[in-house]
Amino acid sequence: MPSPVKAALLGASGYTGADLLRLGVNHPGLDFVALTANTHAGKPMASVFPHLAPARLPDLVTNESVDWNEIEVVFCGLPHGASQAIIVEILKANPKIRIIDMSADYRLEDEGLYQQWYGAAHVAPDLQKQAVYGLTEHYREGIRTARIIACPGCYPTASLLALLPLVKAGAIKTEDMIIDAKSGVTGAGRGLKQNTLFSEAGESLSPYSVGNHRHTAELEQEIGKASGQAVTVNFTPHLIPMSRGELITAHVKLGSAANAAELRQIWAEAYADEPFIRIAAKGEMPATGHVRGSNYTLLNAFDDRIAGRAIVIAAIDNLVKGSAGQAIQNFNIAFGFPETQGLEALPLFP
Q1: At what angle do helices 136-145 and 154-168 cross, to 10 degrees?
Q2: pLDDT in tens, 21-45
Q3: In terms of residue numbers, what domain contains 166?
Q4: How far apart are CA 13 and CA 240, in angstroms?
Q5: 241 in the same domain as 110
Q6: Does one domain contain both 81 and 215?
Q7: Is the residue at 185 inside a domain?
Q8: Which residues are catalytic?
């Protein structure tokens, strides 16, 4: 097994950062030597996340105080906009560093598309073009050698793992594709927002970013590449009153497939050797509780009563397979560790 890799985590005070540490502290190949959180610099990690107190972690520091020449891999858990600029500076300081970015800044291949969806020009379009989309099961070979691994958003992770094999096989059509998605409130980040206050979000299911959620761009990029043509996806996310978990329900037109059983067979063949993809038995309803705290994706397909259509469902933990777990899975591939290292835990239930 390779020697431990010296790692930095940017944005360690967020939910994604906390879950990456929860999973990574016992990984024999990860040595966290720098944790940054500018607003909490100088504090021990346990004062920000008490549940991490048993781990022997360095105190939080500012991004500017890190010596990048001592680092081999950077996990970036900063918001979009902040990531792209600091990644430029890191790679200038140490071009050998590899970046695993959990923000949206390097996911889109078209810089014009980035500006359209994120409201500002990308500061490093050359680096943007070098990044590999980090959907592990579909870009494994590129991830092995990529300088920047751009982990997908949580909604695209669940949606694309379900849809890409079916699109590539021609089993479903790309027109009139409707994705209804629901996520726990950790997907909105740890910052103070009115809509995620307990009194606002508790006992209340609400849609948001209706018709213009930024993850739509990723979905259309990747489904378009799989189908070989430009696509338009109807995508609507919802905030559901639970801490973690994500479930997507995609309503699709059948292509070459005759029914849901054939869709499940395509998944079975495409994902036969994938350690974190599970295809549910016929009739089994995927639920977020069946993957909570784990890096697993649970898939199933159902016949629609409307002729020529099917309903595809995927469940993931938005903080694990949808973010931190996928980042560690990509780290394992990029640095030569067993792909399941640090991610073997079964789901928590109940």
Answers
A1: 100
A2: 999 999 999 999 999 998 899 999 9
A3: 155-319
A4: 23
A5: no
A6: no
A7: yes
A8: 154
